[in-house]
Amino acid sequence: MWQLTEKKSTPVYQQIIEQIINYIQNGTLQPGDKLPAERKLADYYQVNRSTVVHALDELVSLGWVLRRQGSGTIVNEGNWGRSTTPRVDWRSLFTQEAHPKEPFLEKLQQLLNDPEAIDLYSGELPLSLIPDFRFPSYTWEELLLEERKQSPLGYRPLQQVICQRIETEQKIKVSSNQVLITSGAQQAMFLLLQVMLQSGDSVAIEDPSFLYSLPIFASAGIRLYGVEMDREGMRIDKLEQLILTKKIKLIILNPTFQNPTGSMMSNRRRNALIDLSRKYQLPIVEDEVFREMNFNEIPPSLKELAPHQVIHLGSLSKIFGSSIKIGWIVADQDLIQRLSEAKQMMDFSISVFPQVIAHTALTDSRFEHNQAVLVGTLKQLAQAFLKGAEAIADDWEVSEINGGIYVYLTWRHQHLTRKDWEIFLREKLLIAPAFLFSNDTMAMRVNYTRMTKQTREQFFAKLQTISKELRRS
Fold first, then answer.
1. What's the rounded Cα separation, in Å, for the pair 130 and 374?
2. Cis? peptide before 208, omega within 30° of 0
3. d(Cα 194, Cα 197) in Å, to the nearest integer?
4. Contact at 8 Å (CB) between 271 and 305?
5. Given the DSSP bridges, would you call strands 406-411 and 443-447 parallel, antiparallel or unpaired?
6. I need a labelling partner for 282 at 20 to 30 A (CA). Which of 4, 180, 194, 276 fits?
7. pLDDT tens digits for range 151-206
8. Burial degree of 294 (CB within 10 A; 0-12, 13-18, 19+)
9. Which domains are assigned to the chain?
10. What is the DSSP string of 437-469?
């Protein structure tokens, strides 16, 4: 295992780095695995100890391994601060995964089609809750006519509707040249990384965050740093420490019904974040895909508080499912123009058809009514979940549900390991453990909207059984 079989012209320390990263990516080395001691590695590779030390120092700086006093060198158990290799090995890009596989996720995905499994992992509403709307029939000729309403920024009627909704809901007046239509929020995020950052740059996100495991950051060579959260949201003091020590270039967060915790950033914390971003002249990317699923009055969006400091991301996929994969970026005109040019260069064109569907959905006369019905149904589902959660309150701390589709459950007892979460897969209870969003292993995200009365009863019965087993372990 610890041998360099191929002769290469690159320095030996670089070859050692590439081999160890390859072992981590293909699963030969797992998170938390301990590497041999420096002297042993030097013997295995038949090199000076200084060569091994150089390689390990580089791996530490890239975030792939950690050195702990008295414990030696271990494979990093998380993604915080991880960067790509110093040089691109093009051949490896064609022969291996670009991002380490998550064993738990692979096993979970195999169970998604099992009729006996309870899917509380998927990040969508069940089909029975997705609002219905009438889609007019179009001839091919009529669709071609609609195609003429496309601009480099997107389908103009859809842009105009988005502008109207933002003005109504967030009290911000934006024009069509400040809105770029994308194929979902993830494409929007990818474009922002390509235009605003360079490989090696650092980004601050919430800890935990759904962004944690997205491969787009690793692919772009971006280092992610998590900012601790409390009941009011991202902690500003912790964020400022990161800005000063890690040279943060961008702040990305999900302040309204945060994924995975379902929490809401307070109005006071939002203003403090804006003040800090202005102090250090750092742009903020605000992901607001859950905003319209609110049960009560919610704080102003960050975009509303600071229109020129904040880049706003929206999407229809949470309300209408991934079948309508339409998102948008709202930002100042100069940035939107640069993003549009990048989108065209990458040939990220979007067919007019899903944009026409999105426009039809948003302008349907029953949309507001259907949305109100949906929110009312979600509120009932949330209340039913919290009522059922009383049975497991001694073992799990359950977050409030004020909107969105997620609830976060935190284990109250001894430290859990990744292996402990295999019990949920054995019981065919598909949830999202915290280690998919952070280095934490003590909590889980549950999509409460996917529960019927029957599956809710099954969930809490299974969870009580699992909790007893966890307490004994």
1. 8
2. yes
3. 6
4. yes
5. antiparallel
6. 180
7. 899 999 999 999 999 998 888 899 999 999 998 888 899 999 999 998 889 999 99
8. middle
9. 12-88 (1.10.10.10), 103-129+369-472 (3.90.1150.10), 140-363 (3.40.640.10)
10. TSS--SEEEEEGGG--HHHHHHHHHHHHHHHHH
